[in-house]
Amino acid sequence: MHFKKYIFTILFLVSFYVYSQSSQKLNIGLETIMQYYVDDPVTGNFNGTNRFRSNNYFKFDYNVSKFSFGLQLESYYSQALLNYSPHLDKKIGIGTYYAAYKNKKLAVTLGYYYEQFGSGLILRSWEDRQLGINNALRGIRLKYYPTNKLNFTILYGQQRVGFKVSEGQIFGFDTNFDASSEQISLLMGLSYVGRYQNFKPLYTIDADHNRDFNPLTSAISGRINIAQGHIYANLEGVWKSKDNLVELGNIIGNKAFYGNALQLEAGYSKKGFGFTTTFRRLENMTFYADRQANGNTYNELIINYLPALTRQQDYSLANIYVYSAQAKLSFNPLNKAGEIGYQTDIYYKIPKKTFLGGKYGTMVALNISNWYGLAADFLTPYKRINTKFLTFGKAYFKDFTLEVRKKLNKNNKMIYTFIHSYYNKAMVEETQGEVKSNVVAAEWSHKFTGYKSMRAELQHLWTKEDKGNWAAALAEFNFNTHLGIFMGDMYNYGNPDENHQNHYYNFGGSYTKNGNRYAVSYGRQREGLLCVGGVCRVVSAATGFTFSANISF
């Protein structure tokens, strides 16, 4: 019966496709990811209830005059892919919908919407299907533009969780003012976000012990962005009112703590050279639409956006030990109050027709990332803490990356990368151990006559800790602008346990035409963190077939 509903939905989309050909106001998109899991001696036997699973998204947007309407149907058949939230539990259902009106001065949205205040330190709602994130707000949003230098946003909503919404209610205000002149760019902003959730905390002895519980948690953010010539700087500060402590999924009603954040970014750029550095301090800055969701592994009900400020690496071995932001306050199982650190990027192009630049010039990029826990005095038995504002505590993550890009001739390019990193598993993953590693990678790309091209990677990771050394290789071949194939492997040949010196291979291909893309692959998935844009989720080991399609009408 469910399968018939699935087929009916596909036919429904096809019928809309015919209509969309005669109407430029209707846009339809279909994205599907299907996986079939198999037993494997390395990743283990599949013990789930359904070997075949798929995530499917059908999006409709219609615009007429100053009005717009949208609907996203979602289907998880026979259930959601591995490691996705169990709240995505419908064979087919309405994920989001909206109706909106906009003119030069006013914009109003009813239903589900996405929003971000400033850099997202106190509010960002967005969708990332690869990470399983869709924390849209359902309610109402008004934007008012009295002048081209000033705007206001007021919103109210409950955050999406699966096919339902949060118990906690979110309301906010944001304003931005452009005070720029001909000589300097100056932007200022002020934001407020409140979460209201009234319920009886888990640990309550009497009214006196519950004195610190407040159903309302507020966050206020102020920011200023300034730029002149080749120089720019952005500063944002956040104050968060007392929020109740959550430990191991339990809300402690008689313990609440303030939070705060400070982020400073500055840089300089001109042709052939640039650098940017970002400093950030986070203290007790986890912020969830429902308190009891604090620390969940599915990135659900997160109000604010706190990505790891480290280099987003392109290579598979460089993504074995990845950092995720440590913003929470915790006494159990470890004493942690947040994080403090910085990231610096430097870019330089060695000029053409020099010894190191050669005929085409050489691009050199350097990234340094260092992140630490906040230094603090903990009175663990009493759940008390005294943090130190700009003092660095235990090292959490250190990363040094040097990348050199060299064009050899009009058909051949090379990229050489060296990465040295330190990863404190005990503090970041709350497991055990510290890992120091070095990664080298070489990437070659070649253009043949016509539209044929090829790309190949060789990588190696050295470490004496954890699972030992790794080697990896990847090859891609594009027959034309439409069709391409790939094959790759990660080999943990240095694992101290010879029974776990495993290969994690993957191969497949893709076809693209008119903006539509179809891909198929087969391979093993390594257990660990999957990160996109500094936001991560845990994925389990698995082996199987994958088919994906992304179609727009």
List keywords for this structure.
553 residues, two-stranded antiparallel sheet, mainly beta, 58% strand, 2 helices, 24-stranded antiparallel barrel
Describe this protein's structure.
The radius of gyration is 25 Å and the shape is globular. The two termini are 28 Å apart. The chain has a 24-stranded antiparallel β-barrel. It is mainly β and 553 residues long. It has two helices and 28 strands. 4% of the residues lie in helices and 58% in strands. It has two domains: 103-300, no CATH class; 307-524, no CATH class.
Count up the domains: 2
Count of helical segments?
Answer: 2
| Residue runs with pLDDT of under 50 for 5 or more positions | 1-8, 10-23, 204-208
One letter per element, helices H and strands E, the order comes to HEEEEEEEEEEEEEEEEEEEHEEEEEEEEE
Gyration radius, in Å: 25 Å
How far do the termini sit from each other?
28 Å
Report strand %. over 45%
User: How many DSSP-defined strands?
Assistant: 28
- Indicate the percent of residues in helices: under 10%
Largest sheet: 24 strands, antiparallel, barrel
Structural class: mainly beta
Question: Which descriptor suits the 3D outline?
Answer: globular
What is the average per-residue confidence, as pLDDT, rounded to a whole number?
Answer: 92
Topology of this protein?
Blueprint: H1 2-20, E1 26-37, E2 52-64, E3 67-76, E4 93-102, E5 106-113, E6 127-128, E7 133-134, E8 137-147, E9 150-161, E10 164-178, E11 185-196, E12 216-228, E13 231-247, E14 250-270, E15 273-283, E16 338-350, E17 362-379, E18 384-409, E19 412-424, H2 425-428, E20 434-447, E21 453-462, E22 470-478, E23 483-491, E24 503-513, E25 516-525, E26 528-532, E27 535-539, E28 542-552
Antiparallel strand pairs: 1-2, 1-28, 2-3, 3-4, 4-5, 5-8, 6-7, 8-9, 9-10, 10-11, 11-12, 12-13, 13-14, 14-15, 15-16, 16-17, 17-18, 18-19, 19-20, 20-21, 21-22, 22-23, 23-24, 24-25, 25-28, 26-27
